[in-house]
Amino acid sequence: MNTLRGSRPVAAPDTPEWQRIVSWRYDRLLAARFPAECAHALATSRTTDLHALLALVDRGCPPGLAARILDNDESDYA
Amino acid sequence: MSTTDGRGYLTARADVELSEVSTGLDAESAAWLEGLRGEPAQRNESVRRLHALLLRATRWQLHRMQAQLARMDLAERDTLAEQAADDATVAVLSKLDDYAGHSRFTTWVFKFAILHMSVAVRRSAWRHREVPTEPASWPYQADSSSGPEEEAEGVALARALRTGIDTALTPHQRDILIALAINDVPVDVLAERLGTTRGALYKTLHDARARLRVALHEQGIELPATRKGTR
Lengths: 78, 231
Known about the structure:
By secondary structure, chain A is mainly α. Chain A has helices spanning 16-31, 36-44, 50-58, 63-70. In chain B, helix 3 (40-64) packs across helix 4 and helix 6 (148-167) packs across helix 9. In chain B, 67% of the residues lie in helices and 0% in strands. The longest helix of chain B has 25 residues, at 40-64. Chain B has 9 helices and no strands. Chain B is an all-alpha fold and 231 residues long. The A-B interface holds A 1-11, 17, 21, 24-25, 28, 31-32, 45-52, 54-55, 57-59 and B 83, 87, 90-91, 95, 111-112, 115-116, 119-120, 123, 127-128, 130-131, 133, 170-173, 175-176, 188-189, 191-201, 204.
């Protein structure tokens, strides 16, 4: 009961609402000193757990390494 | 086991009571489970009835929360209620084995409808809003109606809190605390935007509060213990 995973997403892809969310996520990642290209890729990915990423950076993990740790496709951030 | 003699009703009733004793469920709840786990035709009919029941519940919940959807027209609201009922139906069917019979089945499934409708309303209400990670205004301004001593204490607490938020928390903890605790962003809205779970955010909020409590303690301010279960 306490999980909503799998429920309807807040915004469909390619809608203005999703673009606003991507922009918000991108700003959060830039503020955490992620490189712009990496931040863009992570912000637009629907499977990226931004909270986990930013928590890793909070603990001193370099942004690029945090992205590699949590992303399935390491080649994007190599 | 039914009989056709004059005591047929009593025999059937005894069967129901026996069923309640053996499963711990009331007859109606047991019938729901049987239908939802039955043969395809029986199951389809039960799912249809379940969806209709959940739709009534989502519409009721939507009505209760309509003030949050002032800009949404009736057709959009009805679509939202339908979608929430769809999601709730899927959730109930996927959790059917978790039903332990602690409440009536209909009571149990209503919780799914209310949860999914509430989340949908909150998401819709925030659809066109920014999720701020800076406080719109710092709370805990001194209450002008209080006496000089209380006012001084309030100002000191507000100052200590701001200092603690700025210095004791990590940047992401600060963002989460400000969004959830000060700007009242719904936790499911923030979880959706961050691509995470509500539980992960609650954990961060808990950690941030613990750090703040220590920071305030170091400044000579003791907060009363929180009640168990409060967020």
